[in-house]
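Write out this protein's structure.
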Amino acid sequence: MKHILIIGAGFAGMYAALSAARLRNEQGVSPDTLAITVVAPEPRLVIRPRLYERAPETMVAPILELFDAVDVRYEQGKVDVIDSAQKSVEIVGSDGMRRSLSYDRLVLAVGSQGFKPDIPGLAKYGFSVDQLEDAIALDHHLNSLANRLSSATRDTVVVAGGGFTGIEVATEMPSRLRAILGAEANIRVFIVDRNEVIASAMGSDPRPLIEQALREAGVETRLGVGISALDENSATLSDGQSIESATVIWAAGMRANPLTAQIPAECDRSGRLVVDRNLRVAEVPTIFAAGDTAYALTDELGHRALMSCQHSNRLGASAGFNVTADLLDVPLEPYQQKNYVTCLDLGPSDAVFTRGWDAKVELSGDKAKAMKREINTQWIYPPRANREDAFKAAEWARLVDY
């Protein structure tokens, strides 16, 4: 029996499993001949793009029945050692017990995590919406503010980072805080970013709409500066100024999961494994990478996949297809994702939808908000737990080009 091991049950890991199972089924191969196993701490998909919203504990979707429907095994635990020479991994269970699992091909799809620099006070006093537990901790903190007396410290939020996540967090925060503290609270929200403009990576076309939305939401910006220190009641900026706040949310930078460092292969500066067009790690041909662990070309023009749900779905589906094709002597199909779109949430009734790597605005206002709502509540959730829907979703994820 051959064995495909997929580490991670996020967007990339889930679609890698579904795509691998689909090709196995299409080739008439039995699960007893080619086994597919997903290892993850929990059998659920965290809807990570929604963790900036209220009630983050609800932003999960079960996937065990989905895997059962397509004969994918689920192994509960966390991989902490990858031995690529021996083609095995060590798994730590929830009980602390260790066990090993061998593979013939491995798909590394363990995602990414927020990067927090060594800033005094950040580890102790900073919050984030990076992982589910982080978002839940922030939500508990925000709700606990209602037990404090009104003050600038209580009523002010500082968001470090003026990129996609930082903007979504900041524009959600005024209405979220008013629901907790009451309409009379003097709420202030600041975005602090070292760049000279907001949303620097998105280009100039959507920027006027973003700036207008920030003004209308009452979000203030401090650009060209960073946070140099924070304590329980304030954030000190690199220009020496200080903002009174008990809530500093870090949203500035991502890094691939540290497991990538265990693979003896080239990584980019974010820790992602450099892969070929088939998503294979050149130095270790038995390993493929997908999602936020893969530094992959999307087209012939030199664009690279970003750490985003949009790219993770396609990368996962492509890696799952190719790792299975590799074992079944089926021609591999190069990953490509020529089109790129963004839909940026800008508060309760606003958003902006762009298309292309130059981020040309296609929709804004109510229409873009309706699109964002559909993406967040439908498109990014797992398919229904039956073979037909699962295989259709896998093929859509592998071939759709927005």
